[in-house]
User: Fold this.
Amino acid sequence: MLPDIDREEAWKILNDYNKDAFHLKHAQIMEKVMRYFADELGFSQEADFWALVGLLHDLDFEMFPEQHCVKQQEIMQNLGLDKKLIRATVSHGYALTVDIKPEHMMEKILYATDELTGLIGAVAIMRPSKSVMDLELRSVKKKYKNPNFAAGCSREVIERGAEMLGWDLDELITRTIQAMRSCETDV
Assistant:
């Protein structure tokens, strides 16, 4: 599956709708995490598409947080983007803002890891190293259990994503840490 836009065009579109450094960094992290999982799970031929989905998944969030994933469909359709790209990016809003259920493995990975990368990142910046490179599962689990820590990262979505993948929570967290380690120096 080849994307209908390249990375440079996608980055320009993202920057047209996002100015905050945090949102742009999150998009880059998700781009790399999605590429990692494409390669890891045997979808290397689709890695560019998976990466674009990760990069563009929150296209509308900064400008339209109350209409997240809903407004995104409209924006992407107006830009003439491929329906597969639109569906894939908005599926991570399933049961929150849209009824587009993640079906493809890539959509399930996006759904499961989007919130989790935020939580893992929050745990990492509290460490002396400020890195995921030395982050262990037990450290993430300890913070995960505290609902006040990274409260904006929905545990319900993370758990639903793990279930969609057929992975337990420990496996999802461990694999996502590995994915984030693979790209930490790139972002």
